[in-house]
Structures are given as structure tokens and as C-alpha cells.
Amino acid sequence: MSENRFDGMTAVVTGAASGIGEAIAVRLMAEGANVAGIDVAKDALERMADEFGRSFLSAPADVTVETEVAAALDAAATRFGRIDLAFNVAGASRVGAIVDLAESDWDFTVDLVQKGVFLCTKHEARHIRAGGRGGAIVNVASLNAVVPMPAGSPYSTGKAGVVMFSKTAAVELAPDGIRVNVVLPGLVDTPLVAPVLAYEPARDMFLDRIPAARPATPEEIAGPCLYLASDDASYVTGSSLVVDGGWELSNYPDLRRLGG
Ligand SMILES: NC(=O)c1ccc[n+]([C@@H]2O[C@H](COP(=O)([O-])OP(=O)(O)OC[C@H]3O[C@@H](n4cnc5c(N)ncnc54)[C@H](O)[C@@H]3O)[C@@H](O)[C@H]2O)c1
């Protein structure tokens, strides 16, 4: 592992209080960066601030609310003096068959996974551009951007939008020296999917499809995200990196067969 690739840099991580976002934040700090963690989970952010001290800023915000996003980014820039890197990771979903899905569940999910990435990228890019040194933004979508999740239409649709949004942002922000890439994780062992992994029939259906025969650890997603933000990826922009243990090759399980 390269050490200190991000010495002296400031990174913003949304969804930093748990799972993949937390793993990204911890790895960034281990490699020399200061991190502003954005999340709705204030208590967890405070615990991280206590644990990591001056390197970590707790910047609570709901990524779907532009005023909160802008204030959190301003707080990060004030505290650390610069913003170089951003990782847009916050996400969750509400599920349901299309014929039964409530409009509010669609709006909740698409707002969170898609509009949240737009709002964060908008304000992150303004700060990175103001620094005049360029930088990188990594958006976390999902394998479901390219492989449909039955009963997960708002999530799959929202995540597919994140891929195209990232490509568009890569083109728009290239003149400012800002690279934008997107990571598509498969199944990752985090609190988000803990109920699925705890229910053996569902877990078995997933693992049947994954050639690696196990979920990823959050750290196994953080590594590829940090690669895309690093100088090793200096000529990589607008690309989509699938990190799924080969799952894309074997399709998504249809959990509706479990009933209930
Ligand atoms: N776990 C997986 O299998 C998996 C697979 C593919 C993609 N992903 C994606 O990875 C990302 C991280 O997921 P995770 O598995 O680490 O989940 P997680 O639940 O462990 O972490 C998600 C974090 O996002 C935060 N969050 C939720 N809504 C928010 C909001 N409106 N504003 C700010 N923060 C908010 C939560 O508080 C939480 O800390 C998500 O975008 C998810 O869709 C996860």
C-alpha cells in the first residue's frame, strides 16, 4: 500500500459515519489527509471527531438539502483552508414493486442517491476550483446502476443517473483540472445490507451469484475509491469502476422469490 499519498490535502466524505464512507475517511486520514465528514448521523460523526482529533471535522448535513450541503462545505474550507478531494458516498433506499411503490418512496430514494450527488458535486467543485490546484471527485453508485434490482427501481434508476452525472461532470470540470469518476460496488458488508446478510436464504441467493463467494469489506471498496482520487489515476476521468467480486457477470438475484 502507498503511504501518505494525500499528505496535506483535504477531503470531503459524505456518508462518512458508517460503512464505505467511514472506511474511505479512515484510510484517507491514515494516508495524510484531513477529512470533513458529512452525514446525518451526528452522534457517529462526533465519535469520529473524538477518535481522530484535528484531522477530522464533523460536518453534519443532509445531502438532499442544498443550504446544509453548502454550509458543511464552507465549514470544511474554513477549518482546513482548502478542499482537494471529495467522495460522495451517502445513500440508502426504500424498496417496493413498481406497481405498489409509493411516490414518496421513489422521491426519497432518487433524491438521496441522485440529487444528493448533484448538490454535493456542485459545492465541492466550487471549492476545489477556487483552490486553483485541481482535484478529484469520486462518486459511489452501485452495481445496480447497470444490473437491475427487482423491487429496487428507484435505487437502480438513481444509481444509473449517478454514472451519467459523473461522466457529464468529468467533461464540465476537466478545464478546472478536476477529475470525476464513479465506483460501482457489488455486495458490501455494511449496516445498509446487514438485514440481507443476516437472513440466510437471502444471503445464499446473493452469494450464489457472486464468483468471489463473499461480500466485500468496506475497505475493499475504499481502496479503489482512493486509487481514483490519487495521482496514479491522473489520466482517469469519467470512468466507471465496477468492484463486485465478479457479480456483474452472473446477474442479480430476484429476492421476490423469497416472498414476504
Ligand atoms: N453496502 C452495499 O452492499 C452497497 C452496494 C453498492 C452500493 N452501495 C452504496 O454505497 C454507499 C454507502 O453505503 P453503505 O453500505 O456504506 O451504507 P451505510 O448505511 O453503512 O452508510 C451510509 C451512510 O449514509 C448516511 N446518509 C444516509 N442518508 C443521508 C443523507 N440524506 N445525508 C447525509 N448522509 C446520509 C447514513 O447516515 C450512513 O452513515 C451508498 O450510496 C450505497 O448505496 C452500498
UniProtKB/TrEMBL annotation:
Designated name of the protein = 2-dehydro-3-deoxy-D-gluconate 5-dehydrogenase KduD
**Does the UniProt entry include the keyword Phosphoprotein?**
no
Task: Specify the species.
Answer: Rhodococcus olei
Check the record and name the Pfam families matching this protein: adh_short_C2
Q: Which UniProt keywords apply?
A: Oxidoreductase
- What family is this protein classified in? Belongs to the short-chain dehydrogenases/reductases (SDR) family.
Q: Does the keyword Transferase apply?
A: no
